[in-house]
Specification:
Strands 13, 15, 33, 34, 35, 36, 37 and 39 form an 8-stranded antiparallel beta sheet that branches. Strands 2-9-8-5-6 form a 5-stranded mixed beta sheet. The longest helix has 13 residues. By secondary structure, it is mostly beta strands. The protein has 4 helices and 39 strands. The protein has 4 domains: 108 residues, Immunoglobulin-like, CATH 2.60.40.3350; 39 residues, no CATH class; 164 residues, no CATH class; 153 residues, Galactose-binding domain-like (Jelly Rolls).
């Protein structure tokens, strides 16, 4: 479906949409703007479009009111039978009063068909592009030599295949840069999920100890109050012993009524975060090696007086080596050690956002499982909703030669075919040493010698995407798993 943006404030260059000669039932979505803001229909308006073809003939199409910031124009044979550029005007009325209008153009390109004909089409360099057909024994043979023409700016600069896992992401570009994507394959992946801090969302204060004050909990926030003048308070708990050979991700949120000179953590892991401003909320995150210790001790230093307060929430500690395996965990730690925050940013870019609270879990395998894909435009309107079969897809997370994260796993294609490359089974001694394997000590996901095949629901392909819009896979579980995929983005004129 072609999409263009129409501004009801006069001025600027008229946008162009493209159709083929003799198209029937071709839908063009017209997004309505009033300056930089969406123009939302109330539902009471009458809308029509006048199309003046290259021959001068005029057609009027009535358009249904959507009570939204867009309308759909569906053109038929009478509007697409003449090659060339048609000048179009969208007009909005209410009770016979003209509220606004916007112009656009519709370019009708030649229909290519078999027979002893030759069509002249301009190439990107301006040279003629030739199509020749010969019919031999009623079998048409097509020979062509053509380069694509792009009179407008495509929303993405070239055809690319995207594989980076995600659950939610923004589409880069301006509001006028739009296109389609061929979302052909879901790819499975599995992690050994763990979260080692119990009661890190403070249902109450059980399991936590404090120095130089008292604490209460409400709405999943720990409210600490100093009961005397002090230079430090410690918030601490005990966890399973951390492994000095493993990489850990630690995160917590803090807000102090008094400026903090140094915020840090010690014991099970060790890292200094630095100073904090008063009455400002911070999410402190880091990736470090384990400290071979069971004490998780959060230090907050400053010049505190009786009655000063500190709020803590969303405290998590993830064993990344168990979660991903050594290769990925070590790479994230290397990034973080080089530049604070870079390892965190890299994980988040690949769909693993550990700033969100996750409940305590000593360990368990978590695989891709999703129910649908939703695409939204720059105004957060849904422009595509695509159901997916709710099946579990397993696999291993890997790094390519450029250290890009990707999934090697089960595949679920748009035609409904599912290829099982990995099996899920009970743990067996020695699984930790197997290639292409991940285990939590109770269950194991490992690569099959011979893949098996299943059938699932088909899903829609291609799919509409919008510059500055978003794409989202819906997981729906308390802890979600980013989705691997093969998506082929197609630039549109």
């Amino acid at each position: 479906m072609e999409q263009i943006y129409l501004n009801l404030i006069p001025g600027g260059v008229s946008p162009v949409c493209y159709v083929s000669q003799y198209d029937v039932g071709r839908k063009i979505r017209l997004h309505l703007r009033e300056g930089s803001d969406p123009y939302v229909l109330s539902g009471a308006e009458t809308i029509n479009a006048t199309i003046r073809k290259a021959t001068g003939e005029e057609l009027i199409y009535d358009i249904a009111n959507t009570s939204a910031s867009y309308v759909d124009l569906v053109v038929n044979y009478d509007a697409t039978d003449v090659i060339g550029e048609s000048v179009c005007e969208l007009v909005i009325y209410n009770s016979g009063v003209k509220l606004g209008s916007a112009n656009f153009k519709m370019r009708i390109d030649p229909d290519v068909y078999s027979g002893d004909e030759r069509l002249e089409i301009r190439t990107a360099s301006g040279d003629p592009a030739t199509f020749e057909t010969n019919i031999v024994d009623n079998i048409p043979e097509l020979k062509c030599n053509i380069n694509a023409i792009q009179d407008g700016t495509p929303w993405i600069d070239s055809n690319i295949v995207n594989k980076e896992p995600y659950l939610f992401r923004k589409i880069a570009g301006t509001a006028s840069r739009i296109g389609n994507s061929e979302f052909t394959t879901l790819i499975g992946g599995t992690v050994a999920f763990n979260q080692l801090v119990q009661n890190g969302n403070f249902a109450d204060t059980s399991g936590w100890s404090f120095t130089n004050g008292t604490a209460t909990a409400s709405s999943n926030v720990c409210h600490f109050t100093f009961n005397a003048t002090a230079n430090r308070t410690e918030l601490y708990c005990f966890i399973a012993n951390t492994n000095s050979a493993h990489d850990y991700l630690f995160a917590y949120t803090i807000k102090s009524s008094k400026a903090v000179s140094v915020a840090s953590v010690g014991g099970a892991i060790s890292r200094t975060f630095g100073s904090l401003n008063a009455n400002q909320e911070y999410v402190n995150m880091t990736i470090v090696k384990g400290g071979n210790n069971t004490l998780l001790d959060i230090y907050t230093d400053g010049s505190f007086e009786n009655g000063d307060t500190i709020d803590y929430k969303n405290i998590v500690l993830i064993d990344l080596t168990t979660y991903f395996g050594t290769t990925i965990a070590d790479y994230a730690n290397t990034l973080e050690s080089g530049t604070a925050g870079e390892g965190i940013t890299w994980l988040k870019a690949n769909g693993f956002d550990f700033s969100k609270y996750a409940p305590y879990n000593a360990g368990g395998l978590l695989s891709v499982k999703t129910s649908k894909k939703i695409n939204r435009d720059a105004d957060n309107n849904i422009i595509g909703e695509y159901p997916l079969d709710d099946i579990e897809l397993r696999g291993i997370l890997k790094l390519d030669g450029s250290n890009n994260l990707y999934y090697d796993g089960d595949t679920y294609e748009s035609n409904g075919s599912v290829t099982r490359k990995y099996e899920y089974r009970a743990y067996a001694s020695g699984d930790e040493s197997l290639p292409d394997t991940i285990t939590d000590g109770t269950y194991t996901v490992t690569k099959l010698v011979t893949p098996t095949f299943e059938t699932a629901d088909t899903f829609t392909n291609p799919m509409i995407v919008d510059g500055n819009g978003t794409e989202q896979f819906v997981d729906g579980r308390t802890v979600e798993m980013p989705v691997g995929h093969d998506t082929f983005y197609i630039p549109m004129n």
